[in-house]
Write a structure and sequence with these properties.
Strand order of the largest sheet: 3-6-7-12-11-10-9-8
Order of helices and strands: HEEHHEEHEHEEHEHEEEHEHHEHEEHE
Number of strands: 16
CATH class of the largest domain: Alpha Beta
Structural class: alpha+beta
Helix content: 25-40%
Radius of gyration: 23 Å
Bound molecules: 3,4-dihydroxyphenylalanine
Largest sheet: 8 strands, mixed
Shape: globular
CATH architecture of the largest domain: 2-Layer Sandwich
Number of helices: 12
CATH superfamily of the largest domain: Bira Bifunctional Protein, Domain 2
Length: 439
C-alpha cells in the first residue's frame, strides 16, 4: 500500500533534487487549471496532466453492472449501519491528504514524482484516508467511503494512475460504545468459529514496533483491535468464501501482518491466500489519538481501514489487465451484472507490439515522469513500460537507459504504422519535455 511502497522507494528516488517541470510553459504564463467547473491557479507544483484530469468524474465505482460497482455494493452490504459515501471530490488539500494524518514533512509520498498536484496547496487525493479527519470532525462515526484515487506510478498490467479505494472507519465513545463493540465481537467470533477459515495472526502479541497507544488501556486496545479484525475477517469470508470451486474442502486462509501507517497504531495489513498466492488486500489500524485530536473528537476511539478495489476485482472477476476497467466496449461491460461475481471471458487478445527506446537521461530524470509522457501520448494503448537495460558511461558519468514499451489495444488490432506513429510522438515529447538525448 501507499505508505509502505513509497517508504521502500525513498532510498532511490530523486525527489529532493531540483527537477525540470513537465507541462510548464516557460514563455507564456499558463492559464489556470479548470476541473469540473472550478478554477485552480497554477504554480511550480502543478503537474496534473490533461490526461489525468480527464478521468475526474468518470466514477467507475458507480457505473451500473461494472465490476468495481458490484464489488462496492458487496462490501457495503457488510456494513449496513455505516454511512455510505460515494461522491466526495477527488481534489483535496495537501493538509487533508498528508498533514492531518501525521505524514512527516519529508515523506516521499508527498513528492512530485509520486503525486499529482494542481498547485502547492491542492492535489488529487492519493488515498481515501484523506477524508478521515473531515468526516470525524463532522461527527460521522461509522462510514464507508468509495472513491477514485490518483498516483504517479510505473506502467504495467496491474498499475494505472487512477484507481479506486474504499475507506472504512468506526469510532465511538468509551462506556456504551465500547460495550457495543464487545457484544458485536462475540457474535462475529461465533460466526468465524463455525466457518471454514484459517486465520493466522502473529500480530496478537504486542511488539515494540507496533504498540498500543498510551491513551488506551490494554482492555480498550484489545476490544478495538478485535473488532477491527473480526469485522475484516468476516468481510473476507463474505468476499472470498463463497467463490471457491464446488467440492473444495480447503479452508479459506487469511493472515495478519504488522504494518506502519502514520495515523494508526497498532497497524496491520491483511493478506488472503487465493489460488496459491498471498494477495495483499488492505491496510488498517487503531486510529491514533493525534488524528482524533485534530478532528476535535479527543474523547473517541476506534479503527480505520483502506482497501484497493481493482486489486480485489481483478482476482474475483479474473480481469487480466487493469485497463479493462476503463473500457467502454460492450463486450466487456455486458458480461457483468449486479447480483453475481462471474469470471470475465476474454473476447480476444489482440497481438502486442513492442518498441525499445534508449536515451541518455538528463539531470533529475525520474521513471514516473517518463511513464507520464508515455501515458499522455499513448493513452490506454500502452500496456507496459519496462526498464530493460541501463549503464553509466565510465568517463562522462552520463546514465543511459533502455525502456521497452509494450503496445496493445484492449479492443482491436493495432497496425504497425499506428504504433510507429505513437512511438515517434513519444520520442519527440520526451526529448522536448525531459531534455533526454535519444541514442
Ligand atoms: N490509505 C492507506 C493506503 O492507501 C490504506 C490505509 C491504511 C487506510 C491504514 C487506513 C488505515 O484507514 O487505517 O495505503
Amino acid at each position: 500500500m501507499l505508505v509502505e511502497k513509497v517508504a521502500r522507494r525513498a532510498c532511490t528516488c530523486s525527489w529532493s533534487t531540483p527537477r525540470y517541470r513537465l507541462y510548464s510553459t516557460r514563455s507564456q504564463p499558463s492559464p489556470p487549471l479548470q476541473v469540473q467547473g472550478k478554477t485552480y491557479a497554477r504554480d511550480t507544483y502543478s503537474n496534473a496532466t490533461p490526461t489525468i484530469l480527464s478521468k475526474v468524474g468518470k466514477n467507475l465505482h458507480l457505473k451500473p453492472n461494472h465490476p468495481l460497482s458490484i464489488l462496492r455494493s458487496r462490501i457495503e452490504a457488510h456494513f449496513p449501519q455505516f454511512q455510505h459515501l460515494n461522491s466526495l471530490s477527488p481534489i483535496v488539500t495537501v493538509k487533508q491528504n498528508f498533514d492531518d494524518l501525521g505524514f512527516p514533512p519529508d515523506h516521499p509520498g508527498r513528492s512530485l514524482t509520486d503525486s499529482y498536484y494542481l498547485n502547492k496547496q491542492e492535489m488529487l487525493r492519493t488515498h481515501t484516508s484523506a477524508h478521515e479527519v473531515e468526516l470525524f470532525k463532522a461527527g460521522v462515526e461509522q462510514f464507508l467511503l468509495t472513491a477514485d484515487v490518483y498516483r504517479r506510478d510505473e506502467i504495467d498490467r496491474s498499475h494505472y494512475p487512477v484507481f479506486h479505494q474504499m475507506e472504512g472507519a468506526n469510532v465511538t465513545t468509551r462506556g456504551e460504545g465500547l460495550a457495543r463493540l464487545e457484544k458485536e465481537n462475540e457474535e462475529m467470533r461465533q460466526r468465524l468459529d463455525s466457518a471454514n477459515i484459517i486465520i493466522t495472526d502473529p500480530t496478537r502479541e504486542t511488539t515494540a514496533t507496533n504498540p498500543i497507544q498510551e491513551e488506551h488501556s490494554e482492555e480498550e486496545a484489545r476490544i478495538i483491535s478485535d473488532h477491527l479484525k473480526n469485522t475484516l475477517n468476516t468481510l473476507v469470508l463474505r468476499l472470498f468464501g463463497g467463490l471457491r470451486k464446488e467440492g473444495d474442502q480447503e479452508p479459506l486462509q487469511v493472515r495478519w501482518i504488522e504494518a506502519t501507517f502514520p495515523w494508526t497504531s497498532p497497524s496491520y495489513e491483511v493478506e488472503v491466500l487465493y489460488e496459491g498466492k498471498w494477495l495483499e488486500i488492505l491496510g488498517c489500524g487503531v486510529v491514533k489519538q493525534d488524528a482524533l485530536n485534530r478532528s476535535d473528537v479527543p474523547q473517541k476511539l476506534g479503527w480505520a481501514f483502506g482497501l484497493g478495489l481493482e486489486r480485489i476485482a481483478m482476482v474475483l472477476f479474473s480481469v487480466p489487465d487493469i485497463r479493462l476497467f476503463w473500457s467502454e466496449d460492450t463486450r466487456f461491460l455486458s458480461q457483468f451484472n449486479e447480483d453475481s461475481i462471474t469470471p470475465f471471458k476474454p473476447y480476444s487478445r489482440h497481438p502486442e507490439c513492442y518498441k525499445d527506446l534508449a536515451f541518455w537521461t538528463a539531470e533529475g530524470f525520474h521513471e514516473n515522469d517518463f511513464c507520464e509522457v508515455v501515458r499522455d501520448v499513448a493513452g490506454d494503448l500502452v500496456e507496459g513500460v519496462q526498464l530493460i537495460d541501463e549503464f553509466v558511461h565510465p568517463k562522462t558519468n552520463r546514465r543511459s537507459v533502455c525502456y521497452r514499451l509494450n503496445y496493445r489495444s484492449m479492443d482491436r488490432s493495432l497496425s504497425n504504422d499506428e504504433v510507429n506513429e505513437i512511438q515517434a510522438k513519444v520520442i519527440e515529447t520526451v526529448v522536448e519535455q525531459m531534455g533526454v538525448e535519444v541514442r
